[in-house]
Design a protein that fits this description.
By secondary structure, the chain is mainly α. About 65% of the residues lie in helices and about 5% in strands. A three-stranded antiparallel β-sheet has the order 1-3-2. It is elongated, with a radius of gyration of 20 Å.
């Protein structure tokens, strides 16, 4: 049994047999999966009063460990967004009382973003539901398949230069 991408590839093979359209088989499926993941995450986070960008910021702060602080620049690097985008995210989270922004005690010119108790509670309540959503999305694959897929995706991201700085 094939999927929609198989149909697209068959159509291109018929219309343009002179071209190797096989990259569409990978990229097309990644694009379709990206949409499925986005919709599932959006629904999961909405149940907890969050959205994907808010979850990303709260999760980065939580992963940082006590005292759950990062600079806006570190958050910007983690989220791979512009300074304007991170500022908007931080504004929304601060309005909700999930983070605070204060001048650094070590360097009065720098700002640190701190996860509040309410922010930690929101993240900790959302995380199990988020993980269950991801498990559900991946349920069609065996453990060995998941390991192989994770390895291939890792190799691709590294080849594209997506490595921690």
């Amino acid at each position: 049994m094939g999927d929609a991408v198989d149909q697209i590839l068959a159509q291109w093979a018929h219309e343009r047999p002179d071209l190797d359209c096989s990259p569409m088989g990978v990229v097309g499926r990644i694009s379709q999966l990206q949409r499925e993941v986005f919709l599932a995450q959006r629904a999961t986070f909405a149940r907890h009063g969050l959205d994907v960008p808010s979850f990303d910021v709260l999760a980065a702060l939580r992963r940082a460990g006590p005292p759950y602080q990062l600079t806006p620049t570190a958050l910007m690097r983690t989220a791979l967004v512009t300074s304007g985008a991170i500022t908007q995210r931080l504004d929304r989270l601060e309005e909700k009382g999930l983070i605070t922004r204060e001048r650094s005690e070590a360097d009065g010119r720098a700002v640190v973003v701190t996860l509040t108790e309410a922010g930690r509670a929101a993240l900790d309540a959302t995380l199990p539901d988020h993980l269950e959503t991801e498990r559900r999305l991946l349920a069609g694959l065996s453990g060995d398949d998941l390991d192989a897929l994770a390895g291939l995706l890792r190799r691709l991201l590294i080849a594209l230069g997506r490595v921690p700085s």
